[in-house]
Every structure is written in C-alpha cells, then in structure tokens.
Fold:
Amino acid sequence: MPSTEPQLALAQLLAQLRGVLISLLSYTLQTPLSTVQTTVETLFEGDTIPAQAQRSMIRLSLTELNRLSLLVESLLAYINQVWALTLDFAQFRPSKQSAAYLRSMFAALPDTFKAAQPWIEEASARLRPFLDAVSNVQGDFAELIWPQERALLEQEWRQMLAIVNHELRTPFTTLKVCLETLEAETEASVTDRLTFLEIASDDINRLGLLGQDLELLSRLSARQVWFRTELVDLAALLQNTISSFLRRVPEATPASIKSEAITGVSLVWADGDHLAEVIQRLLDNAYRFTAQAGEITVRAHVEIDENKPSVWSERGELSTLSIDVSDSGQGISRGKLACVFECFYQEEGYLRRTQGGMGIGLTICRYLIEGMGGRIWAESPGKALGSRFCLRLPVHEKKGDSFT
Structure:
C-alpha cells in the first residue's frame, strides 16, 4: 500500500521503479543467452557436427553477443534517464501527472524494446499507484528531495549501474574471445578446444544464474511469488542443503562447513523449498567471503514462542525457528550491517572483488524470509572478525501422528 509520508512514498516509488527496470534487464538477457548456450552445448559434441555447421553456429552466437552488448549499453543509458526523470517528477510533483510521466518514461525506451508491450503494461500497473502517492503528498515541492539526498541517491544508483555493467560485460568479453578463437583456430587441438568451451560454458552458466536471480528479484518485489507450507524435516533439509551446496563449490573449498545438531523438534510446518534456498544463499555468501582454513557453522533450533499468546492450530504449537549461519571471514563494519540486504549493495572495492556476483543474493533472502513472515539480520564485531546471519521464522510444530 503506497504511503502518504513523503520520504517513505519516495522510497516505495524508487523501489518499484527498480523492480520494473530489473524485469526489463532480465527480459533483455533471456533470448540471446539461450542462443549462445545452445551453441556452446552443441560444440561439445565435436566431430559429430560438420565444421561448416559449427562455424555457422559460432557466427550466429557472436552476432547475438554483439547485439546483446549493444542492448545492455542502450538499456543502462535508458535506466539512467528514467531514474533522473523519476527524481525530477518526485521533486516537482506536477499534480495529477502520473500518466504524463509514464508516457515520457516509455517514449524514452530504446526502439529495440518497444515491442515488449506486456512489460510496458505490467510496468505501468506497478508504478501508477506509487506515482500517484508521491504526486499527492502535501507540502512544499522542494522538501521531498533535498539536494544532498538527491546526490546520495544518484551516487548509489551509479554504483548499481557500475556493478551491473561489470558483472555482465566481463563474461560477455570472455565468451566473445572464446568463440572468436574457436572460429579462427580450425586446426586447434582437442585439448585447446575443450579448454575454450569449458571457459565459455562457465561464463554462460554464470550469466544464466544472474538472469534467473534478476527474474526472481523482480517477481519478489512485485509480490508475484507464492509461498506454500508443508511438513518439513529440518535435520534432513539442512543436511541436503549443505550437501547440495558442497557439490556446487570448487573441490578446493577454502573453508570447512559444519552443521550443529538441531535442538528442539525437527518436524515443523514451513515452506521447505524457500527455506532451503535462503540457507543455500547464506552459505554461498559466507563461502565467498571466508578465507582458506576458515570455518562456516550452521546452527538451528526450534522453541515455543512464550512471548506471544498461545495460538491454537491443528498443525500444532506456534514456535520460532532460529537458524544462524556464522563464518570466520572478512566481517562487516558496524555501520554497514543494515546495508548488506539492500539491492545491489557491495562493500568497498566491489569492482575489484574476485568473488563476483551482483549483490542481490541477500536481498532475495530478505524478501523470501519476510514473505514467510520472518525476519533476517546480520551481526559482526567488525572488519576481519567474521559475521553471522540470523533468521527467525514462525513455524508450527507437528502435532500428533495424523500428519505424515
């Protein structure tokens, strides 16, 4: 529900704007990446594909990559333009001009995207009530955005664009080099060929995961994700999630991961799939920022929430599930603990990191936990002193033997 409080109304509008632009970015990536992925997978078959057919596929993929690079460049310029347009709208708030703003927003859309009519309709429906809320806020127009606040917003927005640009262009460049080399080196050895294909495959998979995360983030921000309660065995869920995570990370894991025995009951009613996704993302975050010989620990317990009135339910007592993922990694400065869940937030030197990622994994965790009625936060004594991510989630303990 849009707020009538000026600063909150603006924050809600900008969050919705970011959501629709993320959905456009996800839409932009899908088709070209699918073409390149098909080419890389087919080239692994080697001699079973005629040389001429391989070269044709490579040329098509290079064409798609070049087109995608141009699309991303025009999209980032468009995003910058729309962001400035929205801040101007919020600052001067012409009465009843939401429709005019939307016309201006879509008029600036690059020609390549104007066929995306379903996206335009969805974006209009999502933005309109929040534009109306900002437009109807009472008070001096200039009070909604002070100059220093606008400068800070624009600085954060530029950082977000830099992260997006970096995380997309780096694999674009690698893929292009690999495909161009495969096209030119017709007499390359099988070993060299497989090396280039493996590098290309890693980057296309990385881009695919980024695209999936962007799509999920967009759906979460639009409240288009459904949550389903089921009977969950917490001990099995933790064990399976950690095992699945360890299968994905390199063999030379830089940190040991251990799970402490669950205290309290193990069978509860909760959204097992989304809970497992949050735990896996927290493990991934800890893994990225924990040095070799470090340690990551997962702790979980369930306890009846005695601070709340007893709630009768055929599914049992209302309890609180507590899960903490601790690491001995680089830690978080105290002033940044609340920021780490913000969309596209990265610590200093984000473009020089070797860990990769857009900085949206923890944002997705926050949306998922809040969508399940819980809360999540970060704790850390400071830089280089490790960190702990804590989630608390209301669950119902299994009651009796009638539910299996």
Remarks:
- Residues 349-354 have pLDDT under 50 and may be disordered.
- The longest strand covers residues 294-304.
- The first helix runs from residue 6 to 43.
